Amino acid sequence: MQSIQTLYKNLPAWLQITSNEEILVVKINRPDKRNALNDITILALEQVFANIPAGIKAAVICAEGKHFSAGLDLSELKERDVIEGVYHSRMWHKALDAIQFGKVPVVAVLQGACVGGGLELAAACHIRVAETTVFYALPEGQRGIFVGGGASVRVPKLIGMARMQDMMFTGRVLNADEGNAMGISQYLVAAGAGFEKGMELAKKIAGNAGMTNYALMHVLPRITEAAQEQALMMESLMAAIAQSAPEAKERLQLFLDGKAKKLGE
Fold first, then answer.
1. What confidence tens digit (pLDDT) does each residue in 185-211 have?
2. Does the annotation mark 229 as catalytic?
3. Which CATH number does the domain 4-206 belong to among 3.30.450.20, 3.90.226.10, 3.50.50.60, 3.40.640.10?
4. Which of 77, 147, 152, 156 is deepest in the core (most CB within 10 A)?
5. pTM of this prediction?
6. What interhelical angle do 228-244 and 246-256 show, nearest 10?
7. Within 10 A of 44 (CB to CB), how many other CB atoms are there?
8. 141 φ, ψ to 5°?
9. Which is the CATH superfamily of the domain at 210-256?
10. Catalytic site residue 140?
């Protein structure tokens, strides 16, 4: 595997990249700033996920301290004209697309504040593990502005448009149980247990066939947004491609021979 230090040069010191076998671990380490996201961090995340090392099959995004991310770093706030505002928003879009539509599935481990841009980052990941301390908010509505990092696209797909409207109209804060019930997180664990659960899930994901993971990341989202006739055609094509892969044939044969793990094992 290519050296992490060689591959990721000139990253900010607070974005710590390590690997654990086939899992890339990306940690935001700015606890004194509640892991707020500035432009440097967002661009660095794009660099990381656009250049996944060979041999890595899944990733975990986590954060140091009590909070996942309290959102946009307030020191980044400045006067922008319309075109500058569009470019800034599109920069976030490009970076978070590199996570959602990158080379490997990504598990986010959430605790404390997962607010504004922090929720946008979490929503770009494929699986979210929430600790019981987590809370979610989109305070942009109370500040006279609108989300710009992809929340209007990704968050309604998790919780529904009406619930996102509620969060922005009223400033509603969702706790861990509410967020899990609504679909922001898929797993809810005790405080301090998130990273262990995230790594467990990432290792399971890494054990999947590469074509299956690719289909779930890149094809399934497009199927769900397409008209039924086109969606069913995409499904047929993807099923045919996946089952023709040598790895799929080997796995099916193990199942037929009774050598594959049974569900629940």
1. 999 999 999 999 999 999 999 999 999
2. no
3. 3.90.226.10
4. 147
5. 0.93
6. 80
7. 21
8. -60, -30
9. Lyase 2-enoyl-coa Hydratase, Chain  A, domain 2 (1.10.12.10)
10. yes
